[in-house]
Amino acid sequence: MCYSIPGKVIDINNGAITLEYFDEKRKARNDFYELALGDYVYAQGGFVIQQIPTEEAQEILKTWKDFFYKLQEVDLALTQEPKSLYQLANNSRRKYLGNSCCVHGIIEFSNYCHNDCLYCGLRASNMSLSRYRMAAEEIIQTAEQAAGEFGFKALVLQSGEDLFFDEGKLLEIVRQIMEKAPALLILSFGERSLEIYQKLFEAGARGVLLRFETSNSGLYEKMRPRHQLEERLKLLKDLKTMGYLIMTGFLIGLPGQSEDDLLNDIHLAASLEPEMFSFGPFISHPETPLKNAPRPSLDQALTAIARTRLLYPNARILATTALETLDKEKALRAGLMAGANSLMINLTPKKYRSLYEIYPKKANPEDNTQETIKKVLTLLQELGRAPTDLGLN
Ligand code: SAH
Ligand code: SF4
Fold first, then answer.
1. Cα maximum dimension of the chain
2. CA separation for the pair 215, 238 (Å, rounded)
3. How sure is the predictor about 389, in pLDDT bands with cuts at 50, 70 and 90?
4. What is the pLDDT, as a whole number, of residue 312?
5. Using an 8 Å Cβ cutoff, are 136 and 173 in contact?
6. Which of 122, 143, 159, 279 allows an S-S link to 110, with CB 3.0 to 4.6 Å?
7. C-alpha span between 246 and 207 (Å, rounded)
8. How far is the CA of 269 from the centre of ligand 1 (A)?
């Protein structure tokens, strides 16, 4: 987002390039630009989003230089002499990936869903939910504003599995966003055919956010009627092979989930070699069969982040909005201090936000986007996190 600085191209190996941010180096993938050594680009999620004129980039870097090193000092000071599990994880995050932090925006464009996942408030059987669909122009405009006005460099388009958005509509939306709003476009609308995903890739989409929800296949089938874990995993693998950057993970605290399941969840996520881990607490919704299930504690959610970080030190780990819901004041900070190094800001137009009720009481539904961005930037600066790209392994 606005919190991002240009990287200088210092090595090119076909589509794989190396970028330098002051004295740090990061790998990135370049699918779209003719680049030469010494060029400047914005990258996000390990992906080159935009080329920047050299003079403009150097101006931006000049204004950042002192602050960049100051942020490093803050991060270093906050990760000294780790004692607890969370501190150890945070220390490992700094050692392996430095103080980079990705900020993604999410646009929730439809709350219709033909599925009936037991855990989700958007499930088809929830008759008490008012349903909405954003018009294509509204989705495109929201993305344009996010990239243009707010400076987001990665955008997630999320919805229930809503077949109203057929191949033609999705393609038009992706094409227009790619034309008007240069960003890493991440699709998160569930299971579609490989043909559709291939066409969306050709139109410019490069990321998929699709969780496998639980590594326990029996639990998966119970939680997602008519679906099988194997199919979900096959889709994830096929999408990776197609060239998509993968964000995946699981729910923490599903009824029937054991401690062993949770560890297996972490290992299964890692085995898929995702560019980013996305896992978060299950928060029961009153209009679902799981309405009486207790929420996991903030500690349970933080423990999953810390364990993932310690087991897989190179992981990019998202602090999710569901995590924020567990404790609006503390959870985001706590997640970033337990090993997470990425977060998401909700950009859905306000009038729809409360209707996208996957779980109740989402983080700050009343906040306006500018305020939220300001709060997040203040937090990142307090924690010494820099807007350099996290890069690829
Ligand atoms: N329909 C798409 C995307 C929207 S749902 C899909 O299912 O992939 C996005 C994510 O919300 C799901 O992957 C699930 O992990 C999460 N989710 C659903 N219900 C939830 C709940 N009650 N609490 C926390 N997260 C939930
Ligand atoms: Fe639909 Fe996704 Fe919710 Fe399942 S989790 S009911 S697929 S929106």
1. 58
2. 18
3. confident
4. 97
5. yes
6. 159
7. 6
8. 16
pLDDT (tens digit per residue) in 69-86: 999 999 999 999 999 999
Q: Whose CA is nearest to atom 5 of ligand 2?
A: 120
pLDDT of residue 23: 85
Indicate the burial class of 104 (C-beta count within 10 angstroms; 0-12, 13-18, 19 or more): buried
Q: Is the CB of residue 136 less than 8 Å from the CB of residue 143?
A: no
For residue 273, what are its two tokens? 């070699």
- Average pLDDT on 133-162 reads 96
Q: What is the predicted pLDDT for the residue at 4? A: 81
Residue whose CB lies within 8 A of the most ligand 1 atoms, among 358, 359, 361, 362, for a mutation test: 358
Separation CA 203–CA 201 (nearest Å): 5
Atom of ligand 1 nearest to the CA of 120: 19
359 CA → ligand 1 middle, Å = 8
Task: Supply φ then ψ for residue 149, to 5 degrees.
Answer: -75, -45
Mean pLDDT of the chain: 94
Rounded CA-CA distance 214/342 in Å is: 22
Ligand 2 centroid distance, CA of 160 (Å): 5
What pLDDT does residue 364 have? 59
Would you say 291 and 285 are in contact if contact means Cβ atoms under 8 Å apart?
Answer: yes
Residues in contact with 185: Cβ distance below 8 Å, sequence separation at least 6, in sequence order: 155, 157, 174, 177, 178, 204, 205, 206, 207
